[in-house]
Amino acid sequence: MDYKAFFAEVADWIMQANTMAINHGMDSEAFWKWVMDSTAAICEKHKNNKLVLDQMVMLFHWLEDFYAESTRGKGS
User: Fold this and answer.
1) pTM score, whole prediction
2) Distance CA 32, CA 12 (A)
3) Secondary structure class of 75 (helix, strand, coil)
4) In tens digits, what is the pLDDT along the chain, a chain of 76 residues?
């Protein structure tokens, strides 16, 4: 596996996630559908390599945590 290429892909995915969040909002179905579809595509592209799976799951949780933190206290 070309780790350098994979982690460059991860960096690109993070930039795309930022763009999707700006364009659609993190509270939108479109954003979270893109997150799920794109993480699955990356995992499948790399034949569900354990490092890839773990990295993409971590990024998903990172987005979830960021979203939860950004909405904490809203509506109070």
Assistant:
1) 0.88
2) 17
3) coil
4) 999 999 999 999 999 999 999 999 999 999 999 999 999 999 999 999 999 999 999 999 999 999 998 888 665 4
